[in-house]
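Why do we care about 3D structure at all? Because function follows from shape, and shape follows, mostly, from sequence. That is the central idea of this module. The next example makes it concrete: a single protein chain, its amino acid sequence, and then its structure expressed as tokens.
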Amino acid sequence: MSASTLTGGFRVAIQFSALAARAVLGLAQPIRWRTVFQQIHFIANESLGIILFCVCAAAMVTIIEASFHMKLVIQNDSMVPGFASMLILRELGAVVTALLVTSRAGAGMAAEIGSMKVTEQIDALRMLGLNPIQFLVVPRLIACVAAGAMLTVVANMVCLIAAMGVSVIKLGYTPGAYMELTRPFIEPMDLLFSTIKGAAFGAAIPLFSCFSGFQCREGAEGVGLATTQAVVSSSVAIIIIDFFLTFIFSYYY
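And the structure:
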């Protein structure tokens, strides 16, 4: 790795840290709540359908595959409901939801802000005496944190219902037996930690997406590259944050 690459990476890290710090400090300033609620609608309401479809499909596949392999190894799948529910609450619901929000809402944020930079609308905001980070990033940060937490809770609940449904239909359990087998494996704390993960992932998405938009180069190709960079960087950040939060939460399980 060349010195110029290291220098460039260090410079980008400094610029991102400065944007993140200014966005966090901007939370103490007056908030444009109308924009916040518009962004919550864009992020949460318009993403809900695809999120529920994908997490339910993932839950069903998890149940079926876990049952197959557990029967293969120990000739019994009585622990499948518990293990699957624990996986859904601790990892699947929050991570899949965040990655889907990144691919949809995060890409949209990067494209919108990138287009604003290319058309010099961000320079116009500065000429009007407006702080672009306060005006553009802070409402999206608040909205994405709130939407991430809410979507994670809804996704987890629907995911558990889907897992119970496939267990009843495919594995032959009754709803009562499924609940009884699940109870020893999960606790209310699992849902709390999952919600915290959803909020943390939600904070990362607008920061990386808006940063990519602010770094957008001229032309349509620049907007496309900024959008791609936003999705990739946000997805990597989600995986890294998930690792550290899982490591921390493991001391409380």
